[in-house]
């Protein structure tokens, strides 16, 4: 893909001695779902799939941008002062220019191999990668933590997506062969060795189209804020739901609606599962890790209610296969991807059988990816 990006840049803008190249990974969250905006722990990894950029300054106040994924739209050109959104992929560029105070024109070609709407953070990969590239062109020494926080502002303030910090953080700070246990409240983190021994991590894409801003993602976030308000009115002043570590029943009794009780239960138990999962990886207890993944999915299915028929079909089909020790949805839900831990010797047969069940049940095929765990955003040659 990098070579394709280089070729397209030359085709559109000619040979440029100042052109630079960058790579920004996608991510998969092993466990800790819908926890980042609740101030708890998540356990994501950067993956080898991602977004590539060829970019250089153009000595004007214009941006000229071309995406291989959206080639039918051709090259899009606009002025640095044009912050008006038009529901195109270039809205992200306008948000970056505004939040990062970019004051120079540039030419950029983008190409990636993250499946769109897969739940593997194609948009965060794009946003974080371009932000890193532009900061590099400015010779700014912004920290990777601050870069992640500013990219989150692009999503929240400009794009209108109420996401947490996880995606941007792991894309900025990923490390080959390691997951990150991230405290989303204080942004403390530690690298956790990601060695699955005789098991492989399989990602399965439902291939169901979804739009994060149009889904129930924001609704779940609002429900969690409603729970915080109810607890505050009952004398409990908390910054986040994940501040609660014990006496769960005491808090549950204060919530009047069944749906709020279920949301609360998921958040608290998922946070604890994430801490346990990191310990499992440290100890090499992959079988226990698998049990935690399955428990996570059941909680997301029954308590947080963000899975849907497609994801449930994938996960429960995986769990019926020989050699599968755990599976769950990953990402925001409502489509996107599921992950499964499967004995390497049984992966191909499991994929074949899951594909058959899913296609019969849903009416179209899933896609499968076996990923490697890679580094965070970086300049490449």
Automatic annotation (TrEMBL):
List its EC numbers: 2.7.1.6
Q: Which family does it belong to?
A: Belongs to the GHMP kinase family. GalK subfamily.
Official protein name in the record: Galactokinase
Q: Does the keyword Nucleotide-binding apply?
A: yes
Instruction: Give the UniProt entry's GO cellular component terms.
Output: cytosol
User: What are the subcellular locations of this protein?
Assistant: Cytoplasm
Instruction: State any single GO MF term.
Output: galactokinase activity
Binding residue positions for substrate: 33-36, 217
User: In the record, which residues are listed under signal peptide?
Assistant: none
Question: Which HAMAP family does this entry report, sorted A to Z?
Answer: Galactokinase
Q: Could you tell me which residue ranges the Galactokinase N-terminal domain spans? A: 7-56
> Pathway of this protein?
Carbohydrate metabolism; galactose metabolism
Q: What is its main location?
A: cytoplasm
Locate the GHMP kinase N-terminal domain: which residues?
92-174
- Binding of Mg(2+) occurs at 123, 155
* Keyword Zinc-finger carried by entry: no
* Site note Transition state stabilizer, residues: 27
Chain segments annotated as transmembrane: none
């Amino acid at each position: 893909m990098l070579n394709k990006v280089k070729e397209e840049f030359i085709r559109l803008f000619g040979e440029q001695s100042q052109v630079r190249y960058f790579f920004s990974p996608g991510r998969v969250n092993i466990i800790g779902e819908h926890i980042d905006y609740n101030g708890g722990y998540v356990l994501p990894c950067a993956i080898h799939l991602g977004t590539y950029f060829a970019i250089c300054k153009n000595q004007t106040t214009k941006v000229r941008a071309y995406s291989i994924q959206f080639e039918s739209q051709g090259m899009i050109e606009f002025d640095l002062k044009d912050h008006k959104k038009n529901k195109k992929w270039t809205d992200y560029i306008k948000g970056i220019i505004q939040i990062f105070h970019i004051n120079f024109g540039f030419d950029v070609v983008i190409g990636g191999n993250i499946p769109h709407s897969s739940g593997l953070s194609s948009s965060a990969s794009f946003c974080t990668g371009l932000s890193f590239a532009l900061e590099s062109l400015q010779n700014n020494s912004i920290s990777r933590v601050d870069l992640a926080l500013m990219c989150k502002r692009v999503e929240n303030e400009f794009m209108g997506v109420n996401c947490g910090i996880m995606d941007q953080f792991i894309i900025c700070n990923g490390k080959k062969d390691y997951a990150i246990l991230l405290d989303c409240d204080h942004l403390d983190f530690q690298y956790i060795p990601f060695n699955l021994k005789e098991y492989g991590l399989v990602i399965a894409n439902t291939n169901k189209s979804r739009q994060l801003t149009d889904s129930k993602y924001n609704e779940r976030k609002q429900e969690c804020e409603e729970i915080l308000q109810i607890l505050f009115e009952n004398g409990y002043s908390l910054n986040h739901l994940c501040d609660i570590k014990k006496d769960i029943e005491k808090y549950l009794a204060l919530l009047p609606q069944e749906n709020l009780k279920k949301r609360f239960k998921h958040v608290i138990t998922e946070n604890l599962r994430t801490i346990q999962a990191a310990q499992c990886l440290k100890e090499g207890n992959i079988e226990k890790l698998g049990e935690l993944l399955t428990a996570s999915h059941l909680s997301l299915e029954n308590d947080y209610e963000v899975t849907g028929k497609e994801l449930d079909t994938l996960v429960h089909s995986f769990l019926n296969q020989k050699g599968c020790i755990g599976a769950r949805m990953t990402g925001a839900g409502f489509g996107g991807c599921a992950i499964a831990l499967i004995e390497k010797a049984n992966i191909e047969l499991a994929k074949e059988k899951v594909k058959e069940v899913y296609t019969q049940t849903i009416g179209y095929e899933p896609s499968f990816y076996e990923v490697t765990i890679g580094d965070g955003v970086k300049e490449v040659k």
